[in-house]
Amino acid sequence: MMKKFVKRFFKHQYNLHRIMYVYTRILMATVTVVSLILLGVAVSNIKFQSNQSLLIGLYNSADIMSDQQAEVNKFARDLSDDPSRVRNYRDFFSLNSEDYLNKSQDDFSGQTFYYLPTVMYDFFDQNSSLRKVTLNENSSKDSMVITPDNIGGERIKANNVRAEGLYYTAPLVDKTSLTNFGSVLVNFSPQRITQRFDRLSFSKGLQFLVLSDTGQIQYGYNLDNRMRSRKLKNAWIGQNYQFISKDLRQNYFIKGLNMTGNRYIYTLIPKRDVYLKMFIWSSMIIVLAIAIELFLKWSFRWVFKYYNQELLWMTDSMTAISNGEIDARLHVPRQAGEIRTLAEGINTMLDAIDKYVLQIYQLKLAQKDANLNALQSQINPHFLYNTLEYIRMYALNEGKDELAEVVFNFGSLMRNNISQETNVPLEQEFDFAEKYSYLYQMRYPDQVSYQYSITNEVRKVVVPKFIIQPLVENYFKYGLDLTKIDNAIHVSAFEEGDNCVIKVEDNGKGMSEKELEQLKTHLDSDIDALIKNSKSVGIANIQARMQLRFNGNFDLNIYRNKYHGITIQMSFKLR
Predict the structure, then answer these.
(1) Chain segment 419-453, per-residue pLDDT in tens
(2) Is the pLDDT of residue 142 over 80?
(3) Are 398 and 431 within one domain?
(4) Which residue has the higher pLDDT, 568 or 393?
(5) pLDDT recorded at residue 139
(6) What CA dihedral angle connects 558, 562, 565 and 568, to 10 degrees?
(7) pLDDT classification of 500: cutoffs 50, 70, 90
């Protein structure tokens, strides 16, 4: 489905600007979607962290308070462990400090000396977070307040005792009578709870409350002004730790727990702090997404600026070329890449086209010259043919058959030479060259011999006119050695694989190594040089015309043969 949509969307939209525009929008849409996902994750994570902070703060505080309550309960049990300690506790209230010390010493009977200030000293020493211990005795109207600085205790009226801060109470029970004879009130430092809250992720806005069963604050951590207001305290009413008003529930995320001793603890986080954190993170993500989108938009324009400029230059050059400015060329950038490769390839192609146009133009000029020469040579051809035919008939009448044959062959050569054909079957070329050889043999009957052989497979192969006769003519003109009587030339044509091979072999004077090397160097020139430097019919002319005819699939090789003469071998693809 997506693939069909993309194909339909991009159909006929191959303009670079359009592609850049669409691709940039796709990237920006992707960034937007990813940003929305990150935004949702961030908001969910903040909610999760706030909820975890509430729960962790609540249960960590509950664990600490439970441990401290257990320490107070253990201390109360130690004070009422046996009847002697109960009596000692009552003496601590009923006697002055000196009499109490003497009484404790009198009661010492070889066992561990029990003295309440010493017990209190050990209790403070074992619990560094203790601030104050208040002891009460039911039959006494006074209470004893003991601090680390006053182990002996300070006697105050029981009615003046105020429970403040983080405190815990435990009753004192006489095990022999199972009666309650007093109570212990212990104040702890909130340092342990404070340290736990400081390590939480939302410690800055996290608040902690310890409420009595009447809804009064026993301890508060990091309370804001709303939580400290008396008006709000008066609204904390209800049962089963439901002391939080509707107003607070609208403004705070709250978690609560009922503790032993009819106390209630709560952890609170202002909703505005959570929402502010959500807003900050959301703003950061949105700003980052906008910055990324702007950067993508700018970077794409900047990156494709030069790419687009190169394409504009290329299209301008192509337009100029199509308008007839054949010398115009594409701008080639300095940086490597597909634009440079494309520009270089097109420039190379244009150079090649110019080269081929020049070759065709020069060949057409040469063809026109040849046609003009042919026209000039055809002045009154019937007069020449009729004259030659008259001579031949006269020779026959006089019994000069050999002369008549010579005249006939000469007439055939002339007729073939001035004909307008440019391409002929290979067998016709062989026939023409053979007549030419015959004329030379008539001139030197005892010194020259020739042989022509062509297989049936290559007889009908069409080749340019005059590709064999010039080679034979070169032999008779430059290679014929009249100092010997065995001059011979052999011309053959046959099929070899996918190639047609033409050989012209002789046993004439041959060529020196230097002359042969110079000729090969000349033939290795490009086709332009062959055309310009080959005004006469010769080997170079033959090579140039054969290369054009067979699109470069042509080879010409010249070498000295075993007869001390020259072999010229030509080959080209049949199919």
Answers:
(1) 657 788 999 889 888 888 887 888 788 889 999 99
(2) yes
(3) no
(4) 568
(5) 86
(6) -30
(7) very high
Looking at residue 241, what is its pLDDT? 39
Task: Identify whether residues 287 and 428 lie together within a single domain.
Answer: no
Task: Please give the structure tokens belonging to residue 527.
Answer: 């086709």
d(CA 63, CA 56): 10
Q: Which residue in 418, 451, 455, 412 sits closest to 435, CA to CA?
A: 412
Name the token pair of 75: 């201390």
Name the helix (H) or strand (E) containing 418. Answer: none
Element (H, E) at 147: strand 142-147
Residues 167 and 284 in one domain: yes
In a domain, 311, yes or no: no
| 251 & 346 share domain | no
Q: Quick check: is 184 in a domain?
A: yes
Helix (H, G, I), strand (E, B) or coil at 43: helix
Read off φ and ψ for residue 265, nearest 5 degrees: -120, 145
> Is the pLDDT score of 310 beyond 60?
yes
**Domain shared by 450 and 397, yes or no:** no
Q: Please check whether residue 339 is in contact with residue 314, taking contact to mean a CB–CB distance below 8 angstroms.
A: yes
What sign has the CA pseudo-torsion 220, 224, 228, 233?
negative
Number of Cβ within 10 Å of residue 277's Cβ equals: 20
Mean pLDDT check: name the lowest of 2-16, 229-243, 463-477.
Answer: 229-243
CA distances from 64 to 67, 312, 527 (A): 5, 77, 103
Query: 217 - beta bridge partners?
Result: 211
Q: Which three-class secondary structure state does DSSP give residue 112?
A: coil
* pLDDT for residue 234 is more than 50: no
DSSP state letter for 408: H
Coil, strand or helix at 219 = strand
Helices (H) and strands (E) in the chain, counts: 18, 16
Q: Tell me, what CATH number does 425's domain have?
A: 3.30.565.10
Question: Which residues are paired to 463 by β-bridges?
Answer: 424
Beta bridge partners of 257: 265
Query: Per residue in 326-366, pLDDT tens?
Result: 667 766 766 666 667 777 777 777 777 777 766 776 666 66
User: In this structure, what token pair is assigned to residue 219?
Assistant: 């301890």
pLDDT-derived band at 263, boundaries 50, 70, 90:
confident
Total domains in the chain come to 4
pLDDT tens digits, 72-85: 999 999 888 888 88
Choose between 303 and 574: higher pLDDT: 574
Backbone phi, psi, residue 550, to 5°: -110, 25
Q: Is 557 helix (H, G, I), strand (E, B) or coil?
A: strand
Task: Identify the domain containing residue 198 by its residue range.
Answer: 15-293
Flag whether 125 is in a domain. yes
What is the C-alpha to C-alpha distance for residues 254 and 559, in angstroms, rounded to an integer? 108
User: Which residues lie below 8 Å from residue 297, measured CB to CB, with a gap of 6+?
Assistant: 24, 28
What is residue 236's predicted lDDT score, i.e. its pLDDT? 45
- Asked whether residue 157 falls in the same domain as residue 276, the answer is yes
Structure tokens at 69: 């309550």
Write out the two tokens for 68. 């401290």
Q: Say whether both 518 and 403 belong to one domain.
A: no
Question: Does 176 reside within a domain?
Answer: yes
Residues 57 and 147 in one domain: yes
Q: Which of residues 293, 314, 348 is at a domain's end? A: 293
